[in-house]
Amino acid sequence: MLQQRTRLLSSIVGACAAAALLAGCGGGPTPPPTGNQPTQEHPPSHEQTASTKQASATYGAFEPGAKAVTYNPALVPTGAKVDLTSQRTNGRTKITVNVHGLVPNREYGAHVHTKPCGATGEDAGPHFQEKADPVKPSVDPAYANPQNEVWLDFHTDAQGNASATTEGAWSFDTRQDAKSFVIHETHTHTEPGKAGTAGGRLACLNAEF
Question: What's the whole-model pTM score?
């Protein structure tokens, strides 16, 4: 009887050892399968599509090819600096401007204009408008407002520095009539007959939006 049990146990151990050579015994790790494996599909990305445009320059006198021009050095001194960033994300645009070295503790108006900077402030053309006012000049609050136009008014600190940010659904990606950023003499008016006006044009920056 003991010999039979011994032979039976030996047979089981031998069978397990043989099986281990093929598939492993006792729940050991299974070798990785060979051959081409199906590629795991990744879920679609939900990241927003974004594009950023930047313009940085130092204001100076007009010359052909100048990126930033001052028309009134008493209020926008030669050597003052400007940095503008336009970031478009899923149909909306966020515009931020930083200025350095202007007159301290002073308010300025600022807008996006339709044409590039030129020898005079008027060369930059009118304000960009998402929906164009059929009456020119545009002073109707229904058209001259910070949603239909792009207003970036600011007030400088004691060092002459300032920043401003605005955001809207302007269709810059399908149009070619937003070419410059213009600093004006006063904050922008909002009342009928004066809406959108902000005094003289002090300086201009060529920029893309």
Answer: 0.77
Query: Which residue do the tokens 């902000």 mark?
Result: 198
Averaged confidence pLDDT in the chain = 85
Tell me the three state secondary structure of residue 88: strand
- Give the whole-angstrom CA distance, residue 195 versus residue 190: 4
Bin 13: left if φ > 0, else alpha if -120 < ψ < 50, else beta: alpha
Tokens of 19: 């099986």
Q: For residue range 135-190, list pLDDT tens digits in order.
A: 999 999 999 999 999 999 999 999 999 999 999 999 998 999 999 999 999 999 99
pLDDT at position 18 is 40
Q: Which of 57, 91, 65, 60 is nearest to 77 (CA)?
A: 60
166 or 21: whose pLDDT is higher?
Answer: 166
Q: CA distances (Å), 118 to each of 81, 97, 109, 124, 206, in order?
A: 18, 21, 19, 7, 9
Q: Which domains does the chain have, with CATH numbers?
A: 50-206 (2.60.40.200)
Cα separation values, 98 from 24, 33, 142, 169, 183, Å = 69, 60, 28, 21, 12
Q: Which helix (H) or strand (E) holds 17?
A: helix 2-22
